[in-house]
Write a structure and sequence with these properties.
The structure is a homotetramer of 349-residue chains. The first copy, chain A, is an alpha/beta fold and 349 residues long. Helices cover 41% and strands 16% of the residues of chain A. In chain A, helix 7 links the parallel strand 4 and strand 5.
Chain lengths: 349, 349, 349, 349
């Protein structure tokens, strides 16, 4: 009963096998391995983006921060949701990589940036000329930190607002696969066709050991990205082991299958929770996370039985009236089993 | 015939197996996995350093840069050899992580810093008070970039000079195992007993897929290291896959055996080269690299036959008199075979 | 009729004379001039702080940013009001000087941070451990950006909340003199006795050409301040010309007299505005700024007659119904005359 | 007998008067004052550069660092002489402003960069691709730190080498006037006509209180310069007092006259020293600095009589044989009198 995070789950077995297969003889280091050539072509094809620059790094924070640093100057600001990973969970990595840019935090229900709020935030930036920071980049997270998804149309509206004011766009796709399979659209529709310039294309939360691709649909800053990646210590010498993971991930739609399993687990989990007396959802369940509240007594039983997950917000105490609902975040991964979901539901019901 | 770099070689098969074994069920992320607990204890035991703080990152540049950032302020300088990896091969990563510190470059034969030159460099720093940068940290590389090794006594002399002036010390041990097995001393003798405060303990060049340990013998900056690691995007969510590599590396002295194989290959290679007419060594061969010169005709034959290695310095042309010697760097890894060495020797003789 | 900013006003004549007097013969540069010795002692005496470290810089942004950089690490955050100068008007200088720290913005009426909001903001920082930025420093502005003042007791409450959680404190006193004369307390009561660690003690807005003192009541980071000042290009070679300004400023309570004049002008101005039909104050008038609204027709007349000030917020248009009030910020300086105030009032009434 | 530095000297009286004149009524802040309009036009005319962007800052370190930050990326390197002010005397300000770029130090006699050494340094940069820092900017100092001057032809050769490899150019002209009057060429000939992109045009060492102009002959990075200046805390609110200094400096060729006086003083000083037994020059005297050695006994007498100057190098002791020469740096300013020079000469002869 592990719902603390999708990054606690295992890697897909096929990925481990691909690593073992890649371990034959010598290979040119630093991304010059032949597997990377295939990965690059595969991603370009998948995203219908023949000119895209494609790179691999090992963590989502690296993918996001280096990408954003290519889009903003130190004296500019990044527009993002108040709960975005780049704001809340990266210990200031975007500020570090960009040389001290700001993040302009936008509030919105269910983890999403409302168009009018984005419009206002961008418009107001720079109103005092040289005295304030300048318009920088937009960063959207899809699936969001609240377990919801932006549709291609929603992405297009937000990117359109940004682009109309000269603001380039980034998508944090740590859970891109989870969003995509829910929406049923194509990778291109959810990204560059909707106005996304750079995508952090997550793999780690969805079955890899530790690989994220960065896709620059506009390849202009490609060389800058390479230099920033190296300078940040994120260029791997034995790069073939990153390439092999990503190749296996994309082969035979493995990535989509893994995401479907995680999403289905979240669906099952949310249905089960809602069946409990006094339970309700905090956010719609659209990807692999469930945000829900249920009576405190159910939390106590689950945690005594060893269930792992976070109270959300974190400062709700287990002490208190039995029937008062407290809320939590539960994240499923591709390997979350029906059995552990059902066991969990039994405890909280 | 691949001598371009030790990072072109494969991982040790046992390491891949350890990764596969680690892929069971869920594990707490970000270094809270039980394998990391064992790794931490093993390294403390191995280095006779029960209080050391131990962390894993995936690249040598990350290990070096984050370590140095914990030892220097932005307005200080790092003393290192002119050819140190941190100066020549990390695209300014130490400057990036430290917030803009300087590197004070020291010349010395065979990749080593002469004590008197270090003494002078440190002494002169800060002579103009607030107008100049201040004394920062010493960084030694062992084995050096010239394929030589510092003995424990040499390390102690250099660290002693630094410590006497309040300068903390770092060792870039990307090839620490290669130095250690050549010297036959203990890990503690080559590090903290000789005055080293932080060690970048390399694994990637010696048979891992991509893991380096950082050992803070003085654990005072441990929390700072953790924050800098996270902020740099180098804290792995599925950390168990780093832990598993390091555990396998240290088990049954695998790391020492791998280094002995690489060193023995370099010895065989250097003996073969020296037997060729007109050949000579540029540096003593003390680890797994061979720096040597031999007639141009031998280079041509080797390269036509597909041998991979770098001219050193890089700007020597293949065009020119047949018998004029040009020099090169040849690096062996744990998997370099006698057969490819002998084939190479046959070509250049 | 210039109310755009207090920094548009002239310097006090006595300050110019002091500069002329300082221009005799040679003087040791970089703060080693004898005038600076006197300034240091004068400030220590004035603030009853015999151990304070005292430095001069030429701009408020430099004073604030270098001070904050001495109090926060790059991975920490600065707590400040959403409308603080350090957030809104310094183009990211605090982020630049600190190496990329965050600013946590706190809302509050009349430019002031509510204690409970500060308590909450600090308490929540670091809740996700290494994943989020850490507790940094508190920065208060007094007089505030809304023209109000914090009393010594209010400062003490806020600094107490900070200190109880290990958070050091900074006061942006660009208009410190204006606050002080309104409150009638001592400089010490409004600063270190209330828990302030570093004060940016403004002079430029109150009659100097361009000098601000930085007073480190806790002198521990004094040397770091000196290095950061130099590294930021803010250490003046011909420092005596800064020293002379500050000496003249403090002599015979000139600084207090100038602030009293500016405050009295703001009082007269606000009384006049309030007498106009349809006028009201946006914030209490407690220093030298007036935030008020009055009918649009009055704005048109004033601006046609050449009055200079800013609409506040900036995006209110002059086009529109005559009698609809729109709001503005009007700032008086020590040289604002009754005549120009009365002329202005006549136009808007 | 003050020869410690030209920045210990007074300001020219006319400059103080100009400041007093500027102190009339209100003025728009931040460079929007009408005096600045005249300064901008005057500098464009003087330099025959109608499109140049012109800004004022208050220190040479600010002028140099902000200029260089506009020319280099964090992962690039600045080529400069080993003894350049930006390397030796700015506490790492260029690294700070640029976000961590390197400085590549070039040795050369008499403070000058030899063309072939520059060619080699640039050519070698980037030889290891993404692993090393990249080609950045050239920074020349004129007059040099050794008191010599580059001729227009010498500047053109060095800038030509840089430009041919895509490297933009900066001139640190803290003592530009001293070089210019020695050479007898036009400001344009010594700068943009010889390939200089940005000039730090010094005033502080030559009679101002604290003002340097930055002239961007190629105005492309003008807005970036403005933002970096603000973000660095170097945009002055009461800017008119900087403008007034620069206007007075340029009026009636005051700046040239002041530099001629300082140079003449250095000439007189060097002639006097050379007449002493056992004396010799360390560098040719071409601007307002004298680098010379003479017997220790003469140093003792001069210093006992209160003469101020620096041993150069700094670590030569006054204790030792009387007749052994030790060397020093002596800097004259516009107000250095014949009487103090002659008094000094009398002591050391």
């Amino acid at each position: 009963m592990f719902f603390a995070s999708d990054n606690g789950g295992p890697a897909a077995p096929g990925v481990i096998e691909a690593i073992a297969r890649a371990n034959e003889g010598v290979a040119m280091p630093y991304g010059a391995d032949p597997i990377m050539d295939r990965v690059r072509e595969k991603i370009r094809e998948l995203f219908e983006a023949p000119d895209a620059a494609v790179y691999l790094v090992a963590t989502g924070t690296a993918a996001n921060s280096i990408s954003l640093a290519c889009l903003v100057q130190p004296w500019q600001t990044v527009y993002c949701h108040r709960h975005a990973h780049i704001e809340a969970d990266e210990c200031g990595a975007p500020e570090f990589y960009s040389g001290g840019s700001k993040l302009t935090l936008i509030d919105g229900a269910d983890g999403k940036i409302p168009p009018e709020a984005l419009q206002k935030a961008i418009f107001e930036t720079g109103a005092v000329g040289v005295h304030g920071v300048q318009k920088g980049a937009l960063s959207l997270t899809n699936a969001t930190e609240a377990g919801t998804v932006y549709s291609p149309q929603e992405v297009a509206i937000l990117c359109g607002i940004a682009k109309a004011q000269g603001v380039p766009t980034h998508m944090d796709g740590a859970r891109f696969a989870n969003a995509l399979v829910r929406l049923g659209c194509s990778p291109a529709e959810l990204t560059w066709k909707a106005g996304v310039d750079i995508l952090s294309f997550g793999g780690t939360k969805n079955g890899l050991l530790g690989v994220e691709a960065v896709i620059l649909f506009n390849p202009d800053p490609a060389w800058e990205f390479e230099l920033r990646r190296k300078r940040g210590g994120h260029l791997f010498s034995k790069h073939r082991f990153l390439s092999a993971q990503m190749e296996a991930y994309l082969a035979d739609d493995l990535w989509l299958g893994l995401a479907r399993r995680a999403n289905a687990a979240a669906d099952r989990l949310s249905r089960g929770i809602l069946a409990a007396s006094g339970a309700s959802l905090t956010h719609p369940v659209e990807a692999n996370s469930v945000f829900a509240g249920w009576p405190r007594i159910g939390h106590r039983k689950a945690q005594e039985a060893g269930a792992k997950y976070y109270h959300w917000p974190f400062d709700q105490a287990l002490d208190g009236p039995d029937d008062e609902p407290i809320s939590a975040r539960l994240v499923c991964n591709w390997a979350t089993s029906d059995a552990e979901i059902d066991a969990f539901i039994a405890l909280i019901s």
